[in-house]
Amino acid sequence: MEGGAAASAPAALPYYVAFSQLLGLTLVAVTGAWLGLYRGGIAWESDLQFNAHPLCMVIGLVFLQGDALLVYRVFRNEAKRTTKVLHGLLHVFALVIALVGLVAVFDYHRKKGYADLYSLHSWCGILVFVLYFVQWLVGFTFFLFPGAPFSLRSRYRPQHIFFGAAIFLLSVGTALLGLKEALLFNLGDKYSAFEPEGVLANVLGLLLACFGGAVLYILTRADWKRPSQAEEQALSMDFKTLTEGDSPGSQ
Amino acid sequence: MEGGAAASAPAALPYYVAFSQLLGLTLVAVTGAWLGLYRGGIAWESDLQFNAHPLCMVIGLVFLQGDALLVYRVFRNEAKRTTKVLHGLLHVFALVIALVGLVAVFDYHRKKGYADLYSLHSWCGILVFVLYFVQWLVGFTFFLFPGAPFSLRSRYRPQHIFFGAAIFLLSVGTALLGLKEALLFNLGDKYSAFEPEGVLANVLGLLLACFGGAVLYILTRADWKRPSQAEEQALSMDFKTLTEGDSPGSQ
């Protein structure tokens, strides 16, 4: 979109990124505080196993996923391939942590004899997890695995970016639904009496929404997009030449 | 639909818009079906007053708000001012319907002696309503009220678009939270037994998320953006010259 050569980072970008990280870390800390202060903490081999679920999901599918999306804005002038690998790796970490969170809740349900997958939260959660995994696989195949034709990469890139943002937002929405579910199950009528746990959890919900908003803002601001189209094309051509052995001229 | 000199609409856009409208209408119909079949229908002067709240919010702050965002994609070749007025009017309709929904729930709470504004859904809801009203006022002042300098308009436009999308997404998220709240309050343990109402409401939740995703997709696809920058600039200059009577260069 932009023609400029690799420029220095926009002046305001670092402040916005720092703010998003502050929000993200506060989010994780407040989740920990909620689980520690009001839900008895975390332990795998007990009733507290459930509590691993919200913590893992907030760390993996909200904080780390959000940061993985920001990699291309933060490392604007690094080699494209390094940035790609970091983007892919952060998503792997997020996926593994989310998997632990998923095992925690299914294992807890099994031990307690609770029904699985009846709620809107669980439907959205499974949808997020499947979409996230598929998006990672397709992204890896197109962008990291050396072999996808350049023309295909160019056509898929906007879809990858849109679905990346959409899956992230659905993750935030699913976390909000889960938080609400936990509050209504555990607090019941006390929720409407402005119990401290309810107020803290509401603040946590607002932090989730704000983190989602901050990541989306940094991601979508047109003048903050990664500038190096030229480098990117050259690199893709390199891959293409290396792996296909044909001339770089043929789209 | 076309009347201008600008480029013809992208071939796939009408299909995506039609799909989004089908989703939106299904969403409203399923909300009506849920309230009619399982919640006793709607009446203002009874306990059924509450049910006006979800219906108004889904029609106003989800369906109409989403359609107001799509106006610039659907009416690509109409005069910019006509499109602007339609965009502003749809938002007014949405706001008025949402206000009725807001009055319904506060009035119902007052009659029943229920506490107000304790839940995450209500916090998000009030936030959405205030942001939506402020965004409308600022948008009107900058873009419809003839007087804002062209340079200010240009600088504010990206913020207006980002916050418009963000407020819409927060509206969808808030609706999901409200749906979840209604289900857990009303169904209780029956929710986990896959009662028909629970399954229908989960489907409604997925429809809400899908409508949000469809609107976001149409809105963000780069090659579907409204093309007529030249006309837009000329029109803004016209307004400026007409209303301020000064040269288009100042400020």
Structural description of this entry:
2 copies of one chain form a homodimer. Chain A is mainly alpha-helical. Chain A has one domain (33-226): Four Helix Bundle (Hemerythrin (Met), subunit A) (Up-down Bundle), CATH 1.20.120. Helix content of chain A is 74%, strand content 0%. Chain A is built from 7 helices and no strands. The first copy, chain A, has helices at 13-38, 52-74, 80-112, 120-144, 150-187, 196-220, 229-244. In chain A, helix 2 runs antiparallel to helix 3, helix 2 runs parallel beside helix 6 and helix 5 packs antiparallel against helix 6. Chain A is globular, with a radius of gyration of 21 Å. Chain A starts with 12 loop residues before the first helix and ends in a 7-residue tail after the last helix. In chain A, 34% of the residues are buried. Mean pLDDT of chain A is 89; it is low at 1-6 and 238-251. At the A-B interface, helix 4, helix 5 and helix 6 of A face helix 4, helix 5 and helix 6 of B. Chains A, B: Keywords: Cytoplasmic vesicle, Electron transport, Heme, Iron, Membrane, Metal-binding, Translocase, Transmembrane, Transmembrane helix, Transport. Chains A, B: InterPro entries: CYB561/CYBRD1-like, Cyt_b561/ferric_Rdtase_TM. Chains A, B: Residues 19-220 form the Cytochrome b561 domain.
